[in-house]
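Q: I'm writing a short methods note and want an example of a predicted protein-small molecule complex. Could you take the sequence and the SMILES for flavin-adenine dinucleotide and return the bound structure as tokens? Please keep the output block clean; save any remarks for afterwards.
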Amino acid sequence: MNFELTDEQVMIFDMAKAFGEEHIAPFAMEWEAAGTIPKDLWPKIAELGFGGLYVSEEYGGSGLSRLDATLVFEALAMSCPAVGSFLSIHNMCGGMIDKFGSDETKAKWLPDLCTMEKVFSYCLTEPGSGSDAAALRTRAERTNEGYVLNGTKAFISGGSYSDAYVTMVRTGEDGPKGISTVVVEDGAEGLSFGALERKMGWLAQPTAQVQFDDCKVPAGNLIGEEGKGFVYAMAGLDGGRLNIAASALGGAQKALDLTLAYMGERKAFGRTIDSFQALQFKLAEMEVKLQSARTFLRQAAWKLDHKSHDATKFCAMAKMYVTDASFDVANTCLQLHGGYGYLADYGIEKIVRDLRVHQILEGTNEIMRLIVSRQMLAERG
Ligand SMILES: Cc1cc2nc3c(=O)[nH]c(=O)nc-3n(C[C@H](O)[C@H](O)[C@H](O)COP(=O)(O)OP(=O)(O)OC[C@H]3O[C@@H](n4cnc5c(N)ncnc54)[C@H](O)[C@@H]3O)c2cc1C
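A: Understood, no commentary inside the block.
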């Protein structure tokens, strides 16, 4: 067993970190205020191969492992968790198309996805179904030409911003077996968007409802087979959860790095606050939390890469553990900054706001507990 990253993996992490420091961090507050990420960022990120991280090289992707991808998201999130996570969702769509699409489907979507000429969103949640995603009601009726969609998707990251929407729709019976996946392109007849949501964090990325009113989609936009869409959506989420965890970890690590430096500068009662043992212990506790989270995350990614039978359980455990630990660390870092932690200029309050949603989306941490305990009970002798 070797816990060291390879030279190539260290290079991937360093490259992503350096890119973030130059092209994301200096503008993160500006993009928060604007409520959007300039679209010209994406082709630059794609030049590093981050547009199609685990898309096969044949279609323009980087063909990296899930473990490699977590390094990219951890590093980018050190500059802005919201931007890194947005890229993660685009990559989740790429992974689904690459894994489940036909050759024609892949040739149609993946080259532009990898160069990020087209930015992709993932549409599963609806106003009436979040955790119980298999209860979705957006209907796709088959016609001679393709499908006609009716329904609404809620909370869509990139809603009204993206160029294509990987959408889970009902083509058959109630329940998971009646769900299919189609790509809806921006500009499709009958596609419209709700107003941008006002949020606590992830302010740089637009979030909106995506609405389908007799929205026409060509038959060729179906991914894989009818009735398998829920399986594809859940497979996408296994990897997505690793990335959401990695992004939380990167944000928390940044908060800890800032706090270590701050504690050596800030004085109280005539000495720097890093000399108080109670606070030193907090540093140690945060270090243990992040190091254990990182090891656990990489183990889960390794299991997904090696198609282990318990990969889904490990992805759920890692998502829950890493995002909870990361939020706790970021929040403690805010406390250690005193009042200054609450001010925007110190960079900590944004991380706390951004990391909160990592405990909620791509399956809440309660649903992660459900996945883990279900598998434990199923395997009980
Ligand atoms: C900023 C943001 C961006 C998002 N981006 C996307 C996106 O791009 N695409 C997309 O499809 N979705 C997206 N989502 C939606 C997100 O995945 C859902 O909000 C999430 O899955 C929870 O669903 P819900 O909000 O309907 O909560 P609910 O399902 O209504 O849950 C409410 C509460 O009940 C708990 N709960 C529910 N069922 C159980 C149970 N069986 N046992 C125990 N507890 C339970 C939940 O954990 C939660 O605490 C986004 C959400 C946010 C906030």
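A: Remarks, as requested: The pocket of flavin-adenine dinucleotide is lined by residues 89, 121-125, 130-131, 155-157, 199, 202, 207, 357, 360-364, 366-367, 370 (CB under 6 Å). The beta strands are 120-123, 139-142, 146-157, 164-170, 179-185, 191-193, 207-218, 222-223, 267-268, 271-272.
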